[in-house]
């Protein structure tokens, strides 16, 4: 059975059982009905899948843009080489024509041409030698440029093929992202069928589980105390964080980087861009390219990366919290740092 069908069926069973009321819940430990736990588990997995699919699509978009730039660079190089080759061939043609006009007929050996000329023999010999050297040099240049043209043509063709492949992969990633968000829409429909009390039960369960995870995290990784030194509030990270906090209440949207909606990495990108620092578009690139930071040494504005595939990003907001749009149906908000499995943290170089 396809994953989408399994997830939808599991959610439907959980939601239906949850809607059945306290009769089923009474069989479970207080505050932890199995149906609510199952529904919350599936919701979290769908959030993670949707985030991972969006990040993969964003990543493919970055690679596609880079490959397109490489195609354009190599195409320009090919055009330049062809222009140089055409110029070299014209120069070679002019040299050949000049030699012909001055008696440099290829049918006559140099000694006979000297006997037939009215010029001083030494000068005629010198002029002939210079002309021959110029022609030989120009011929070598034509050959070099012809080889360069062939190489540039081959490279441009390879780059164009690679771009077409990246474009196909980007389309596949877009389809995967859209499918993940279709599943999220199904979940939204199921949740809409729950009563306010049942939704409150889910929210309370999520808050309890997050609080437990936060306590466990803080016991193992106590973040640094806030920096009260003069000028700390003007540090790039603090200013990036302040900008991100100003975006609270704006909705999550897959692939969005502002100004009216964001995905997690899009918020991080714009927050740091606001202070003149470029960070990667995806969590995976940030994890790969930016300096890693121990969780005990987090500063405001550092990027916290979540899940093993680095599919979620948040800005550290101090006091064990982060700011981010958690996922579909949520807005940019401040949440406990340990709201999801943490992979690690990275710091833009100037923070």
How far apart the termini lie comes to: 48 Å
H/I helix tally: 9
Strand order of the largest sheet: 1-6-2-3-4-5
Q: Radius of gyration over alpha carbons?
A: 34 Å
Count of all domains = 2
Tell me what the structure shows.
This protein is α+β, with helices and mostly antiparallel strands and 351 residues long. The protein has 2 domains: 3-192, Helix Hairpins, CATH 1.10.287; 227-346, endopeptidase domain like (from Nostoc punctiforme) (endopeptidase fold (from Nostoc punctiforme), Alpha-Beta Complex), CATH 3.90.1720.10. The chain has helices at residues 3-19, 22-25, 34-101, 110-116, 121-192, 196-220, 236-245, 264-274, 283-289; strands spanning 292-293, 303-306, 312-318, 321-324, 333-336, 342-346. Strands 1-6-2-3-4-5 form a 6-stranded antiparallel sheet. Helix 3 runs antiparallel to helix 5 (121-192). The radius of gyration is 34 Å and the shape is elongated. The two termini are 48 Å apart.
